[in-house]
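hiii, so i know i said id send this last week but things got crazy w the move. better late than never?? heres the sequnce for the chain we talked about at the cafe, plus the structure i predicted for it. fair warning i was half asleep when i ran it
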Amino acid sequence: MKIAIIGSGYVGLVTGVCLADVGFEVVCVDIDEGKIEKLKRGELPIYEPGLEEMLQRNIEKGRLTFTTSLPEILDDVEVVFSAVGTPPDEDGSADLQYVLDVAHTVGRNINKYVLLITKSTVPVGTAQLVKEAVQQELDKRGVAIEFDVASNPEFLKEGDAISDFLRPDRIVVGVESARAKKLFEKIYKPFVLNGHPIIFTDIASAEMIKYAANAMLATRISFMNDIANLCEIVGADVNMVRRGIGSDSRIGNKFLYAGIGYGGSCFPKDVKALIKTADQHNYSLELLKSVEKINNRQKRVLFHKLSDYYHGKLTGKTVSLLGLAFKPNTDDMREAPSLVLIDLLEQAGCKIKVYDPVAMEEARRRVGDRVIYCADVYEALEDSDAMLLVTEWSEFRAINLPRINSLMRTPVIFDGRNIYDRAEMKKNKIAYFSIGRK
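okay and structure toks below
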């Protein structure tokens, strides 16, 4: 079976490379010529552990190719995954122009049956719009060609995407026909041999499952951050609270870590889009509106702690940010807390030094010369008045505390991810502030 993947961003690349790795012939399509040329050379436009080696292996074996022309390859494929972007519009709703562009292109160019699968995260009802777009183009041509549409949302965690794809918890598929269902069973057979299920649903339910899953995880994060802030006020320790409630089998211990808010390409966008979908149907998702409000507030917490420490007098202070990506093992800075902190620190008149193991180039693209880029942790901390731990990269967990004490002008750490031991900080005479711990 030959499979086309439309969109060579994060989801499209991981999907295409992993399908090729289990033996399918895959062609990835993208309108960005520079990106396609780079991929042909075996170079990734994104950072994801293990993906570049897998990419190069499958190019060498001839199972993975790249092109900028979807019409040229439609006669050769039976399955098309649409993994194009769905960025938020100004009102928070998902922008479907690229999804519908793919549908129109398919309708204008297919000459035989095709299963068109939406892999992008899209609002409920999008599959019907895709179906109408394809049919509209077929009607213009005056041809009757069978096709199916389906929804197959992704559940990939950045930094662990290969494992998530190859060993999924579940595969969600929304289909309308037996023919489409059989194709999915063939595609995903290599991935369910270990017992993980394919969950077949109607298409609208599959579209909703993706949004509901991300909204639930975002809710847990914001809930725990709100509890953490209350813990500080009343003198409780959020880590003890987390262990206490996480041991309840009805709750579980995942996504209960207090911090400085969620970011990335999924949670912020999907929460906004689900709120907008409800608004469009005259229903207000009050819980998710609060989740979003709490998260936006939480991204400012470290700045307020820093400002309180210096009694609001931050002008001229040198502040070091460790971590720029929204989470470890990625260079993704979309909706990252670091961007909010940089804006606030700049407005307060601070000199900002930054270091991230992977996201420095992305930071240069997004932030420009507003900050000082450093080669490592210790360069970033030299002559600093405060360290803000923003992203919990592994290399930050075992920093040399006596050394940073001697390097920093004022040895004070604001730990946005609660990765350090308070007793060790006290032993090394470093002022220490964390999240949800007095």
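btw The CA atoms of residues 227 and 238 lie 7 Å apart. thought thatd interest u
miss u guys!!
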